[in-house]
Amino acid sequence: MAYLSRDLAQIKTDLQVRLDLDHAKVSDLDFAAVEPFFQELEFRTLIKTVERLTGKETSASSSAASAPKPGQQISMFVDEPQVIYAPKIDSNIIVNIVDTADKLTKIVKVLNTATVISFDTETTSTEEMRADIVGISLAIKEGEGYYIPIGHKAGNNLTLEEVLPALNAPLTNPKIGKIAHNAKYDYIVLAKHGLRVAPLTFDTMLAEFILDPSSHNLGLKNLAFVKLGEEMTHIEDLIGKGKKQISMADVAIESVAPYAIADAEIPLRLMALQVEELKRVNGTKLLEEIDLPLTPVLADMEMTGIPLDLPFFEETSKRLEKRMAEIEKQVFDSVGKPFNLNSTQQLSDILFNRLKLEPPDKGNKTASGHFSTSVGVLDLLRGKHPVVDMVLEHRELSKLKSTYVDALQAALNPNTGRVHTSYSQIGAVTGRLSSSNPNLQNIPIRTEEGRRLRNGFVAGKGNVLLSIDYSQIELRIVAHMAQDEGMLAAFRADEDIHATTAAAIYGVKSEAVTRNMRRHAKAINFGLIYGMSVFGLTRYTELTLAEAETFVKAYFQKFPGIKKYLDGIRKLAAQQGYVETLLGRRRYFPALQSKANVQLKNREEREAINAPIQGTAADIMKIAMLKIPPALKAAGLKGRMLLQVHDELVLECPKKEVKETARVVQDTMTNAYPLDIPLSTDARYGANWGETKSI
DNA sequence: CTCAGAAGCTCG
DNA sequence: GTACGAGCTTCTGAGC
Asked: pLDDT value at position A195?
C-alpha cells in the first residue's frame, strides 16, 4: 500500500487539505475534517485532482457541484489506484530506418524468418477510411524495430508500390503470427491498398479490454507506463495538438522512426505479460475465438460501407429547414421576441419567466440553475401555452437535420460513394460494439418523421438490404441463466413474452390481456434486465409505488426462478467482486467490495445484474457475425454484412438471393450459441432500410 | 479563440 | 436518489 500513501501525500500537498487517513484503504478513501478554506475549492476540483493522481475515475457521494462544509465527511471511491509515479525508464530500442530498396529486401528476408511480427502504421488521420499511409513500423523481437518511410514530405521515402508487395509474403504468411495494438485500424489502412494482414494472433488493446473492460486507460502509452514502467513519446509531442496540429507527413523521418518503432515494439513486450494475465482469468478463449477473429470481419463491414440516397437527403434537408423556419417565426411571434431556440437556457427563461409557465417539478433544476426544458417537462406543459407544441416539433426536426440528415451527407466518402462507420470493440463495458464517425447504431426509428430517414439508406445496384434481428434475445438469456420454468416454457411455446408476463402478474387469461396490461408487463421485463427497483418502475410507468410493489411481488411469485437468480447474482457480485457472461467475459465491481456509499453500491448492483445479460447477447451476436461470412461463402451467396445494431444485422445481397441469404443468416444466428431455449430471429428486406417486406 | 462540460436527443 | 449500454450536436463559460 506504499503507493497509496504516496498518492495521498501528493493529494494532501496539492490541495492543502488535512486528510483523515485512519480508515483509508486501497479502494476507499475517506476525506474528513476538511479545513474551512477548502470550502472555496470546488468539490469537482478535488475529484479531478484525485483522478489525475490515481489515473482512475472516481465516484463521489456528494453532489459534485457543491463545496463540502467544514468537517463534512466526504467519501470518495477510487477505482483501484495504481502506481503512477513509476520511474522514467528510457526506452532503449534499436532504430532501423528502411529507406532504400536494398534495405527493404534485407528486412523482408529477416521478417520471413520471424515467428511473430508486431506492426503499426503512421498515417495522416485517426479515421482509417480517410487515412493515408506515412510509414510502417515492424518489430519481431524486443529491443529492435524497423521503420519504412512512405509518405513523409521530406527525406528518402519508399513507395507504396514497392513496399506493400515486398511485405505481402511475411504479413500474410500463415505461420507467422501478427500482433498490434488496436489492429483493426492498421488492418484497414493496409487492406485499403490490398494487403490483408493475416493471421492476427494478438491485439494488446483487445487483450486489456478482456482483462478489464471498465479500464479507462486502454491506450498503448498508458499500458506501457502502467505495466512496463516505460514512458513513451506521445503523438502530441510530434505533431502538436488542437488547431496548430500538423500532419505526421510533415514530421521528419528521423523523429518519427523511434516513435513508430516503439509503437510496434512495446506490444511485443505487453503481449508477454498479457498472455499470462489472460490465462489467470480464463480470458484466452474469448480473445482468440471471439474478439480477435472479429476484427477482420468488422474491418470488412467498415470498408464495404453503406450507400446513401443523396438526393433524398438533400431534399429532406431543405424540407426540414423550411419547416423549422416556419415554426421559429411562429414561436417568436407568439412569445413576442426572438431568441435562440437551440439554447435551453434562453428557452427556460422564456417559458418560466416571460410566459410564467409553472415548472412541473420546481425542485428539479439543472446544474446551471435553470429549470429543465427536456421533452419530459415540455410534454407535461402541453396545452398550457401554444409555443410548447411548436418547441417540441422544432426540437425533433432540429435533431433530425443536424445529427442525421446533414451529418450523414457530410460523412459520405467521396472515393467510395458510401458511408463507412467505425466499430469499436472496446466501446462498451458490457462487450457490446459501439459505432462512431458516424454512429450508425442510433438512426431514428421511433417516430414517423425520424423513421423516414431510413429510406435514405439503400443498397448497391441490383441489390437489396436485408435486416435480421434477434427477437427478445436478452429475456431469453435471462430465462436460460435463471432456469425459470415459467419463462422457459413461454419461450419454448414461442409466446408473446410481454403478454404472457401480463397474464401472469394480473392473474388473467392471455385473451384478457389489454394493451395497458401488456405495457406494464413490458416495463417490468425491461426493468428486470436493468436491475431496477420497485421505485424505479414507478418512474417509467404511471403506476403508484403500492401498485408497482404488488406487480413486482406477483412477478416474482410467478417466476420464482428469476427472483432466485437476481438474488444469486447480487450475492455473487459482492462476494467475488465481478460477474461474467455465459462466455466468460468478466466485469469488475470494486465498490461492492468496499465501504463505498450506498448510491454507488446500488448502481454497481444494477450494473452487475445487467452486465451478464447484455454482455451475453453481445457475445452471441459476435459469434454469429464470425460464422456468417463463411456460411454465405459456402452457400455460394454474394451477401455481405454492412451494419450491426446490437441485436440486428443489416446485409446487402443480390435481390435474387434474398430468400436464400436470409435462410443462411437466420440459421447461423439462431444456432450461434445454443441455449436451453431456441433463439429466434425476424427478417425484413427492401430497396432501403425503411422498407419492411417479410421474407 | 479554443476547449470541456452541460443539456438534450437518438438508438438497442 | 434510481432503471442498463452507447455517440453526437449545440450552447456556454472559463481560460488562453
From this structure: 98
Nearest nucleotide relative to A346: CA against C1' = C11
Residue A42: CA atoms inside 13 Å, Cβ hemisphere, count?
7
Nearest residue to nucleotide B3 when comparing alpha carbons to its C1'? A242
Q: What is the 3-state secondary structure of A348-369? A: HHHHHHHCCCCCCCCCCECCCC
3-state secondary structure of A121: strand
Model confidence pLDDT, tens digit, residues A197-229: 999 999 999 999 999 999 988 999 989 988 998
**DSSP 8-state assignment for residue A86:** P
Nearest to A98 by CA among A88, A111, A85, A107: A107
A211 neighbors A276 (Cβ within 8 angstroms): no
Q: Which residue, among A445, A376, A458, A395, has the nearest Cα to A686 in the 3D structure?
A: A458
Strand partners, A118: A139, A179
pLDDT score for A49: 52
Cα A376 to Cα A29, A366, A521, A529, distances in angstroms: 37, 14, 22, 23
As a whole number of angstroms, the distance between CA A458 and CA A661 comes to 17
Q: Supply A303's cell numbers.
A: 470498408
Statement: residue A555 has pLDDT above 70: yes
- Listed range (A243-247, A431-435, A647-651, A685-689) with the worst mean pLDDT: A243-247
Point out the nucleotide closest to A450 (alpha carbon to C1′). B10
Cis peptide before A199 (omega within 30 of 0): yes
Cβ burial, residue A613 (10 Å; 0-12/13-18/19+):
buried
Q: Work out the number of other CB atoms within 10 angstroms of the CB of residue A394.
A: 22
Instruction: Say yes or no to pLDDT of A66 above 60.
Output: no
> Exposed, middle or buried: residue A95 (CB in 10 Å: 0-12, 13-18, 19+)?
middle
CA distance A133 to A527: 48
The confidence score (pLDDT) of residue A236 equals 86
Asked whether the beta carbons of A63 and A104 are under 8 A apart, the reply is no
Q: Would you say the C-beta of A82 is within 7 Å of strand C?
A: no
Residue with smallest Cα–C1' gap to C11:
A343
Task: Check if residue A682 sits with its Cβ under 7 angstroms from strand B.
Answer: no
Q: Is the CB of A344 under 7 A from strand B?
A: yes
User: Judging by beta carbons within 10 Å of its beta carbon (0-12, 13-18, 19+), is residue A592 exposed, middle or buried?
Assistant: buried
Three-state SS string across A609-654, please? HHHHHHHHHHHHHHHHHHHHHHHHHHCCCCCEEEEECCCEEEEEEE
Which pTM does this prediction carry? 0.89
Residue A46 confidence (pLDDT) above 70? no
Q: Strand, helix or coil at A680?
A: coil
Q: In this structure, what C-alpha cell is assigned to residue A337? A: 421576441
Mean pLDDT in residue range A184-197: 98
CA A514 – CA A503 distance, rounded (Å):
9
Residue closest to A420 by CA, chosen among A298, A302, A294: A302
Tell me how far apart the alpha carbons of residues A572 and A46 are, in angstroms, rounded to a whole number.
33
Residue-wise pLDDT for A419-443, tens only, equals: 999 999 999 999 999 999 999 999 9
Query: Does the bond joining A81 to the residue before it have cis omega, within 30 degrees of 0?
Result: no
Helix (H, G, I), strand (E, B) or coil at A587: strand
pLDDT of A135: 98
* CA distances to A35, A354, A368 from A40, in Å: 10, 34, 18
Cβ-based neighbour number of residue A187 at 10 Å: 28
List the one residue out of A10, A3, A50 whose CA is nearest residue A30: A50
Chain C positions within 7 A of any protein Cβ atom are 1-13
Backbone φ and ψ for A239, nearest 5 degrees, come out as: -115, 0
Helix A43-54 / helix A2-15 crossing angle, nearest 10 deg:
140
